[in-house]
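A favour, since you know our structure tokens better than I do. It will help me judge whether the discrete encoding reads sensibly. The space below this message is yours for that.
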Amino acid sequence: MQKPDSLIFDMDGTLWDAVDTYAESWNQVFKEFGIDKAITREELAQMVGWEGKKVMAVLMPDFDEDMQQKIFTAVMENRRLLLPHRGGVLYDGVMEGLQQLAGKYPLFILSNCAKGIIRLFIDWAGINEHITDEMAHGINFMPKHHNIKLLAEKHGLKTSVYIGDTAGDGEQSRQAGVPFVFVSYGFGATDDYDLKFDDFRSLTAYFMSL
């Protein structure tokens, strides 16, 4: 792999684990709506990285689209309230790694989350000075490969790589025409990658050595 001119990171499963807070945001809303349902961490972890419509179809198959959207909107509003206080768990080496990498590369975060969630993560983690820009699915409801290209066009990126933790991340990277770097400590699994790392410290060491 040639030396990249930038690194684009997925968020959930790549930089942090906030599944417990995400599950709480769902379960509080189910209770508010009088829905006799609760989602576990294990169930939600399997859906991390999915676009909102797919999550709604799986979690709320008995509701029509309007009701699904109403509930989903309430969940996202609740999540925005919870995240600044509850946050999540940064993976080992992420804080130090981003600080080092930002001295050598422009760093970006691109996720299938709702609008505003990446910014809440950045503020919670205190990494604003290390991140050049971010893009969420909730901004335009387009797939990751489209938004990877948008970031590239906006910032003149020529040799980006996308770093994520699921097979879907790999597929979207291929469609965007960028190499895929897989981190195995996240929520997914795949054999289709250009590079693989089992921890963030190894990833940092590799890209700092290029």
Q: What stands out?
A: The chain has a mean pLDDT of 95.
